[in-house]
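re: ur question from yesterday

yeah so i grabbed the chain u mentioned. its 212 aa long if i counted rite. heres the sequnce exactly as i have it in my notes:
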Amino acid sequence: MAYICLVLSGAALLINGLTLLGRVPGRDSGVFNVLIGGVQLVLCTAVAVTADGSLPVLLSVAGTFLFGLTYLYVGLDALAGLGSTGLGWFCGLVAAIAVVFAVTNVTADPVLAVLWATWAGLWTLFFLLLALGRDIGRYTAWALVLASQTTTTVPALLGLAGRWPAGPAWTAGAALVAVVVFVGAAVLSRRSGRRVLPAAAQPQVVAPTAAA
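ran it thru and got these structure tokens back, copy pasting raw so excuse formatting
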């Protein structure tokens, strides 16, 4: 289930990044986020109901619940014009929890720990953009686009193939990807120039990944 949710999140990240860049209409992105968030919440609920109280299983779907709620919030915000400030503060909470997941996975699964740290960075950008109103929309957009496949789709496909990345080399590679995401976003945002986006498009920045 986690790998399927990661694939869905990769698509959501990409669409939301392109929306922030003005390449995808906000309403289209809103509908997509509602679908992705809804599917993830249904999958997580099914796993939780059949977990028979197993704390490890419930912990494994907790992050996906948070991401699914984020996507659903983003979609409803875009479609109904709810306002993005509350969404931004929610993303701040998710970012803090993602840090906890990163720390708790350092020993058990270092690659996943790096991925969680990267997602924490993404959600921190959403918090700064939506809750605090920082002028980082274009930077956030490029970070979403760069992270969309490298931190979700590729690891998910490897997992589905029974080859989830593990070991020092993969951990170093994941750390390098994180650097490329945030440094590359800075380079691309400067090269592409500054652009003022409609307020209605701003909530689409949030769409990051499902938890593994």
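noticed a couple things. The first helix runs from residue 2 to 20. also The chain has a mean pLDDT of 88.
anyway ttyl
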